[in-house]
Amino acid sequence: MNVVLAANFLLAAQKKQSGGLAAFLPLLVLVGVFWFLIMRPQQQRAKQQRQMTTNIKQGDRIVAAGGIVGTVRRVDDDTISLQVADNVVIKVDRGSVSKRLTEA
Questions:
Q1: Is a pLDDT exceeding 80 seen at residue 60?
Q2: Is the four-CA dihedral 27, 29, 30, 36 of positive or negative sign?
Q3: Res 51: pLDDT
């Protein structure tokens, strides 16, 4: 009987000691892992995309959304004039640029 009471007393003492910061530690670790594995790489990709779209200049070959490939003829604030064939120039939104092609 005394052993059972002593065991219950020890369990109660351990529960009181494990409160506070120790209860939130696994949650904090999970948030940290989430940040470094998901949020940070996504922010870096978004930063690279912004840099690429701001550095587009006349003569660059780009791929726009939908797979439209062409040469930049004019760059405005929000739009890009893209030559896709001889005497065919279309306007696309600057944010629709997927990537810049390099000359091989």
A1: yes
A2: positive
A3: 92
